[in-house]
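Tutorial handout. Part one gives the primary structure; part two gives the three-dimensional structure as tokens.
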Amino acid sequence: MERSDVVRTDFPEASPGFERSSVEAHLEAVAAQLAALEARARALEVELGAVRSGAGGEPADRLEQESGPPEGARVPGPPQPTGDPVAARLVATEMLLDGAGREAVIARVESEYGMPDAAALVDEVIARTG
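Part two.
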């Protein structure tokens, strides 16, 4: 199901019935929540891919997780910017829907994704999500 499947305005009008603007507003809210959940799922997939690629594609052993990496093991440094605008938009959407401020979202998009114009990207997401 996609956002466009939820937000429809072609319902037949009937009397008595629900106030059309209230139904449309509710469907917009449901669609926004659906979009946020889809964005969260995609962001988690990206994060999982990054974790797997940093760990050689294999899940860590439980003992290793509890005791830390073995002596002499290479510990990855901070994540490098990916430059992926799709992932950056997804994270920005999720953060904004969770109530993060514009500046915090811009800072994260700049640091994690190295986007050249993070402010414009975040403003575009704000315009789309309302």
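Part three, for discussion. The helical segments are 3-6, 20-54, 62-67, 85-97, 102-113, 118-129. The chain has a mean pLDDT of 75.
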